Amino acid sequence: MRYEVLEKRKIAFHLNCLEQGGAERVVSNLANQFAKEGYEVLIATQWYGENEFQIDERIRRVHVGLNMEDEKRSRAIQFFLRIFHLRAFMKKERPDVLIAFAQRANYRALMASFFMRVPIIISIRTDPVGHYDAVSDKLQIPLLFPRAAGCVFQTEGQREFFAPYLQKNSRIILNPLHDKYIGVPKPTNRTKEVVQSGRLVDFKNQPMLLRAFIQVHKKHPDYMLKIYGPDSFDGTKEILESIIEENHAGDYIKLMGGSDSLEKDLNDAALYAFSSDWEGLPNALLEAMALGLPIVATDCPCGGPRTVMEDGVNGLLIEIKDQKALEEGMNKLIENPEYAEELGDNARRICEIANSKAIFEQWQDYIDEICSKNKR
User: Fold this and answer.
1) Are 223 and 345 part of one and the same domain?
2) What is the pLDDT of residues 265-291, one digit of tens each?
3) How far apart are the first and last CA of the chain?
4) pTM (2 decimals)?
5) What is the pLDDT of residues 303-336, one digit of tens each?
6) Integer Cα distance of 201 and 230 in angstroms
7) 348 shares a domain with 367
8) Which burial class, exposed, middle or buried, applies to 155 when counting CB atoms under 10 A from its CB (0-12, 13-18, 19+)?
9) Are residues 123 and 249 in the same domain?
10) Which of 90, 257, 270, 283 lies at 20 to 30 Å from 69 by C-alpha?
11) What CA–CA distances, in Å, run from 151 to 100, 160, 176, 199?
C-alpha cells in the first residue's frame, strides 16, 4: 500500500557508529537516499570509527554517546547515561520517527522513548539465535519490544523467531545494493579465480573455504582463491595464514585485504564462494549476485542466502559446515562453465528488486504507514 507523503518527514537513525559493516552500510545508503529526496535526516551515533562510510553533507550527524567525564563513571552509570543522551537528543530534535539498527541500539532507543511520542522502528540485522536469546534478552524483549511501533527484518527466518505481536507490525525489506554494483558490464572472459569478499571473521568460516579450495586446486591446479576483506582481529586471519603455510598454498591462495573497488576486483572471476555459518542478509552475497557471478553458498541461518537464492536457478545452496559440499560445488561450477554462466545471469536479476530506489520506496512506505498510525 502506498501512503501519500504530505510533507517531508524528519527521520533519525540510531546505531553505534558508521564504521564499515553491514548495518552501517545500509544506514548510510538509506540516509543518503532520504536526504537526496529532500527529507531532513539525522544520524545519532555512540562513537566515531576510524574507517566510516561517507554520508551526504545535508545529513546531520549527532554524537549521543559518552563524553570524557562519562568515561570516568562506572559501567552501570554509563549504561544509563547512554540512554539519557539519546533521550535528550530525541527531546531536542523531535524527529517524526527514529529507526534503530542492531541489538543494543534497538534496546537503547526503546528505553529512551518512554513517555515520548516519537515512534520507534527497530531493525533486526543478524541471526536472532545466539544474539537475542540470552538471559538478558529474555528479560528485555518482553518489556521493550511491545513498545516498538514497527520492526524491519531481512528474512522470514528472523521474523519467525519473535512473538506474533512483533511479526504483526513488521516488514521484510532487503538491503539496498550500492549503485556501483548495478549495470556492470558482463566480462568477455572469466579468469581462473574463485573469490570471496567480507571481513576475516570466525562466523564466515573462511578456514573451511581454504581447506575445500585446497582440494579443488588438486583437481584444477590452474585456479586460485582470492579473499577480499579487512582483518577483524579475532584471530581468523592468523588461522588462515597458518592453513596457507601448512599446505604450501601461498602461490594459489591470497588474502587480498580490504578493497573499495570490489565491483572491478570480482567482476570477471570464475565463481564466488560464500561459506558463512550464520549471517543476517549478507551484503557481499547480494553484490556478487548483482555482478552476475556464479555462486556456491551455504544455506546459513537465519535464511539470508535462501531469501535471495534458489538452488540450481541462480546459484548453488549447500549445508553449512559441509566442506565436501563446498568443494563439490566449486568443482561443478568450474567444470560446467555454461551452466555456471546461466546461474550468474539469473543471479544478476537481484538488481531488479534490491536496487537503492526500490528499497528506498519500501522504507518510505513503511515509515509513512508507521507515522500515520502514530498520529491517529
Assistant:
1) yes
2) 999 999 999 999 999 999 999 999 999
3) 18
4) 0.90
5) 999 999 999 999 999 999 999 999 999 999 999 9
6) 9
7) no
8) buried
9) no
10) 90
11) 9, 13, 17, 27
